[in-house]
Write a structure and sequence with these properties.
Shape: globular
Distance between the termini: 54 Å
CATH class of the largest domain: Alpha Beta
Order of helices and strands: EEEHEHEHEEEHEHEHHH
Helix content: 25-40%
Protein name: Gcp-like domain-containing protein
Strand content: 25-35%
InterPro entries: ATPase_NBD, Gcp-like_dom, T6A_TsaB
Pfam families: TsaD
Number of domains: 2
Radius of gyration: 18 Å
Largest sheet: 5 strands, mixed
CATH architecture of the largest domain: 2-Layer Sandwich
């Protein structure tokens, strides 16, 4: 059985878990603090103790590697790289948006995880659950929300929006997709247990030294142009610059 540590510090929630194969041994999610650099390592040590494991017992560390908070992303990625290097264990990175989508294995709707990136910008993507696991329908991106709504129109109303930040956009979502499902609250929190399960099926990082967070942020000029041209493709930005 593979012993796995899973960690997500990419946004306000801090969630970590220790698994032995498909068995969840210990997990904790904290939503009241944003000092992930101070809390993450003590939490990892606590979970390993509760699981009656030593760090040397681990086979793999799985981290959510973005998009999300600049500082938050660096915490999990750094811990993952240090553990993988010092313990000589495997490292896996999974999208922070995909981590949210993993909470909905029982839906037939397309899943649209969403993080507020401020100034009417969002981090988002589109996922679909399949028997083999989560499938990426549209890759993660940093995009003006008005443009993203237009791009999602091709899926009609068969959408499930998820994220603590969906409350900021719920009126626009419901106006464009009247029968879409919008999920916030506990179901919209990342679960490190799900992250750890998914990470056991993913390819490992082959070059740990060059493993970095996926920030995905647009430049301010790109963001401004997209807001002014919501119906046009992103490559037109360069053509019209």
């Amino acid at each position: 059985m593979m012993k796995v540590l899973a960690l997500d510090t990419s946004n306000r929630p801090l969630t970590a878990a220790v698994l032995d194969g498909n068995q969840l041994l210990a997990t904790t999610t904290i939503t009241t603090e944003r000092k992930h650099a101070a809390f993450a390592l003590p939490l990892v040590a606590e979970l390993l103790e509760r699981a009656h494991l030593q760090p040397t017992d681990l086979d793999r560390v799985v981290v959510a590697n973005g998009p999300g908070s600049y500082t938050g992303l660096r915490v999990a990625v750094t811990i993952g790289k240090v553990l993988a290097t010092t313990l000589k264990i495997q490292l896996v990175g999974i999208s922070s948006l995909a981590t949210l989508a993993l909470n909905f294995s029982d839906t037939n709707r397309l899943i649209v995880p969403l993080f507020d990136a401020r100034n009417d910008l969002v981090f988002s993507g589109v996922y679909q659950t399949e028997p083999a696991g989560l499938k990426t329908v549209l890759p993660d991106r940093h995009v003006a929300f008005s443009r993203w709504i237009l791009e999602l129109q091709k899926f009609h109303d068969n959408l499930l929006f998820v994220g603590q930040d969906t409350l900021h956009f719920v009126d626009q979502i419901k106006e464009s997709f009247p029968t879409a499902v919008v999920v916030s609250g506990p179901k919209a929190l990342p679960q490190a247990g799900e992250l750890g399960l998914a990470g056991q099926k993913q390819a490992v990082v082959t070059d740990v030294d060059h493993f970095v967070p996926r920030y995905l942020r647009l430049t301010q000029a790109e963001a401004d142009w997209q807001r002014e041209h919501p119906g046009e493709e992103q490559h037109n930005y360069v053509e019209h610059l």
